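Dear V.,

Thank you for sending over the compound details. I've combined the ligand you provided, LQXTBERG, with the protein sequence from our construct and run the structure prediction for the complex. I'm sharing the raw inputs here so there's no ambiguity about protonation or stereochemistry in the SMILES, which I know was a concern on your side last time.
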Amino acid sequence: MNYAVVIPAAGQGRRMQAAVNKAFLTLQGRPIIAHTLAVFQADPRCERIVLVASENELDEMQALAEEAGATKADRVVAGGSERQDSVRAGAAQVMDAPLLLVHDGARPFVAIERIHALLLEAEQSGAALLAVPATDTIKQVDQEGRVKQTLKRSELWAAQTPQAFRPEVLQQAYAYADETGFQGTDDVSLVEAAGGEVAVVEGDYDNIKLTTPEDMTLAEAILAKRAGEAGT
Ligand SMILES: Nc1ccn([C@@H]2O[C@H](COP(=O)(O)OP(=O)(O)OP(=O)(O)O)[C@@H](O)[C@H]2O)c(=O)n1
Ligand SMILES: C[C@](O)(CO)[C@H](O)COP(=O)(O)O
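Below is the predicted structure of the protein with LQXTBERG bound, written out as structure tokens.
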């Protein structure tokens, strides 16, 4: 099944501590968001890209998408103050798509094979995400900085994007969020909160979200490794 993807890039990148929105920071001379757009532009199953930008960066983002040759990104829409608001504004544009994906603008390394595995699962389950098994031991910590408990690592997975939905499933989840005021830090958590099932598809550890300055160093290393593997 084909799909439309919503790419939120309307954040402020505070943890990146850069002077500009981190989407515009460059890796090997290309803006992060151009790397992300290239993945979906190259995927024949991706029909449309909805890019979500801050109100004051709409023109800059549109120009960047054009320069990057992302012809599927025919609209750039204004985001909101929270990630969930930005995704929602973008999703409203493509609720008629066969499947709807949400993918962080700040995750430039997702592999097309993983996207296709995710599509298969979402088609059947209604909602699915890429995730990787936790590699660290995870502690639940109270407000005073004391450990409440050590969570069972074999049951813990780190959520990534893309996250994929049959549109009616996402629509119902948004209706639930409207009723309850639920705010999630990712998109499938709205479906979970509404009592729906979410399937997990194993992703790759290099599908990182560029969040802190250290991630930029890691990202350059991932690109260099890929270039080495491709012999370029
Ligand atoms: N109001 C928001 C907040 C986030 N995002 C986007 O959601 C993705 C993941 O969010 P995150 O990495 O947290 O980005 P920022 O919110 O920009 O970072 P920070 O929390 O450090 O400010 C990013 O592509 C970001 O641009 C968005 O579109 N709208
Ligand atoms: C959606 C997400 O990337 C899954 O890991 C993550 O939850 C986004 O969180 P952020 O606080 O907006 O970075």
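A first observation: Helices lie at 32-42, 58-67, 83-91, 112-125, 167-180, 188-193, 213-230.

Warm regards,
I. M.
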